[in-house]
Amino acid sequence: MKNNVQRIAELLKAASRVLFITGAGVSAESGIPTFRGASAAFADGLTEEGIPFEEALSGPTFEANPRLSWKYFFRLEQHLRGKEPNPAHRAIAALQTPARQIWVATQNIDGLHQSAGSRNVIELHGNLRRVICTHCDYQIYRETFEGMAGLPLCPECRKILRPDAVLYEEQLPDDALGQFEFEQDRGFDLVFSVGTTSIFYYVTQPVAAAARSGVPVVEINPEETPISDLADFRFVEPAGQTMHALLEAVNGDSSKS
Question: What CA–CA distance (Å, rounded) separates 85 from 91?
Fold first, then answer.
């Protein structure tokens, strides 16, 4: 690990634009489950109503029965309360400098990259705590859903509110995808894939494009993924441990890496 850390540190020092694609494996180190992880609290992944957790948190179910979906939005949001950025989030944010632009394209909906100080964050799956109206332009960011109950309604038009997060069977937001594509067109000097299973095209495509262009690719994941063969450097250690070691090496203190 040590030699690769030093080699990547040198690449980071020379880079002006770096992309981090992050998934649930990063937030897991803060104790945050994915949608599917949260379903583990229910027998066989079923809700108290006997339907799959994914179905309760799907776009069609929200349209047909928003009260049911909100019951589990509340439940999911409770898993975020009190959670803090971990060493992976903090290291990624700390790599930002006036000469080195760090972009984070994340599948996570918890906002922890921003909490850690990352400035250029593209939320591919939205943000659970950003609440929007289904009818008008009203939106608000809530630190928690405490104080909300039942079926929340918009204070301006009285229509139903919803979290600004991508539900099952919904498309990714056009704005986020458009921004991600724009930044990819501008190019990156180094691409990281951290804690994601890399099963979706919008994760694999940027990595494959980087590899074709000769841009170094780093994967941090304990499990092999569809992009593992494309990675120039691969770490199976936890994301927090690996990112902390990289940050120390970039800052000139590699004694602990």
Answer: 10
Residue 113 bears catalytic tag = no
- Superfamily (CATH H level) for 34-79+128-165: SIR2/SIRT2 'Small Domain' (3.30.1600.10)
Range(s) for CATH 3.40.50.1220 in the chain?
2-32+85-125+171-250
Catalytic residue among 89, 113, 125, 244: 125
Alpha-carbon span 59 to 201, nearest angstrom: 21
pTM: 0.92
pLDDT beyond 90 at 4: yes
Mean pLDDT throughout 188-197?
97
Element (H, E) at 54: helix 53-56
Q: Does 46 score more than 90 pLDDT? A: no
**With bands split at pLDDT 50, 70 and 90, how would you rate the model's confidence at 45?**
confident
CATH number of 2-32+85-125+171-250: 3.40.50.1220
144-152, long-range: CB < 8 A, 24+ apart: 144/77, 144/80, 144/81, 145/73, 145/74, 145/77, 145/78, 148/74, 150/67, 150/70, 151/66, 151/67, 151/70, 152/70
